[in-house]
Design goal:
Blueprint: H1 2-21, E1 25-38, E2 43-45, E3 54-66, H2 67-74, E4 80-83, H3 84-87, H4 94-119, E5 123-136, E6 151-155, E7 158-159, H5 163-170, E8 178-185, E9 188-195, E10 197-198, H6 201-204, E11 211-212, E12 215-226, E13 229-231, H7 242-253, E14 263-266, E15 269-270, E16 276-277, H8 282-291, E17 296-300, E18 307-308, E19 314-315, H9 318-328, E20 334-338, H10 341-350
Helix pairs in contact: 4-7, 8-9
């Protein structure tokens, strides 16, 4: 009896300690496989076509680590531990990080809409309202002048429609040059001067010097389409569902059902030109898709180009990573490499209907 009481007390002590440790936050983030979420309930094109199968986005769970979560991640496959400054730039708050992720999601939905409606030859109108400052790199000149949320209209008197135009213009300048910006901040219009400097190499990953202001920009576009489309992503953040959004929207716009009865998932950013871009955590997304019995998975191919990191190590493409993971977990999913939206469409058009 005394032995049982002693054991009970030991377990109570262990449980109390474990509970207390969950409140101890560490300077790390943990990412793990999320889920495959069907897009038909999320994406609604007015009068859109129905599907026999499904398109799904795939997610990765990510959050601040406590002691228990850190220990769990250490002993579990496909859990990743990242230093805090790898996920959030120095000086960025948790709220700013969340807002940045949500803003990237909004931008991703907009890009997907433009790609799908353009391909389907449906009505689309785009209005440009300048570019937003999404984040400011500590130690760069812009840190002392610009703030997250500033809307930039022009540089040196040149009106900018997109972040690409802004970056192209600034890239012609040299370190030490100064540019004059017209911007709006909290409803007030002002002009400021900002010098240019060389980016820290760890920010660019490039060997040669890159000059800039030290800001991350996103274009403020207003896209109007007919028929209307709504995409309800609630609190899902990041840009990695772009490809799958574009496929779902396009499938609802056309008469043919491109799912052909299959469960199809994937990942990858999408540009306004329909180029599929690299994303992080693809190995975890393969695990998530496999658990949801996905049959076909689209992975960014990056035109088959492997890169070399600063330590001389080869960086696999998303497609190569996906193949390795699928083999490791013994998945029967077909992993399909795609460089562009059009390549994904071409594959689906040739896909035989599921019996």
């Amino acid at each position: 009896m005394n032995k049982l009481k002693s054991m009970s007390k030991s377990w109570i002590i262990i449980l109390v300690i474990t509970l207390l440790l969950t409140f101890v936050q560490l300077p790390y983030y943990i990412s793990s496989p999320g889920m495959a979420t069907e897009l038909a309930p999320i994406v609604k094109v007015e009068g859109g076509s129905k599907e026999r199968g499904s398109f799904s986005l795939t997610t990765v769970r990510i959050g601040k680590a406590n002691v228990v979560q850190y220990a769990w991640a250490k002993v579990n496959d496909y859990y990743e531990i990242y230093p805090e400054d790898y996920i959030r730039p120095d000086g960025e708050t948790e709220d700013e990080y969340s807002n940045r992720q949500l803003h990237m999601m909004e931008n991703s939905k907009e890009q997907a809409t433009v790609v799908a409606y353009t391909k389907a030859k449906k009505d689309i109108d785009i209005k440009y309202n300048g570019v937003f400052v999404m984040s400011v790199i500590p130690g760069m000149p812009a840190e002392k002048v610009l703030k997250v949320g500033d809307r930039l209209f022009s540089v040196d008197g040149h009106v900018m429609k997109s972040s690409e135009e802004f970056i192209k213009y600034v890239s012609t300048k040299n370190s030490g040059d100064t540019v004059k910006l017209k911007l709006e901040r909290k409803g007030k219009t002002m002009e400021v001067k900002v010098p240019l400097a060389v980016f820290p190499k760890e920010q660019t990953g490039e060997q040669k010097d890159k000059v800039g202001l030290g800001i991350l920009l996103v274009t403020d576009r207003k896209v109007e389409v007919n028929p209307p489309v709504t995409i309800n992503t609630e609190k899902i953040g990041g840009p990695s569902a772009g490809l799958m959004f574009s496929l779902e929207i396009y499938n609802q716009l056309i008469d043919e059902d491109l799912t052909k009865g299959y469960k199809i998932a994937g990942t990858g950013t999408i540009s306004y030109e329909g180029v599929v871009g690299r994303i992080g955590g693809i190995h975890q997304k393969i695990v998530a898709a496999d658990k949801s019995n996905v049959e076909i998975f689209f992975a960014p191919n990056e035109y088959g180009k492997t890169r070399i990191d600063k330590n001389g190590e080869k960086i696999l493409t998303n497609y190569q990573e996906a193949l390795e993971t699928a083999k490791d977990i013994k998945s029967d999913m077909k992993i399909i490499p795609v460089n562009t939206f059009d390549e994904a469409i071409a594959y689906l058009e040739k896909l035989p209907p599921k019996k």
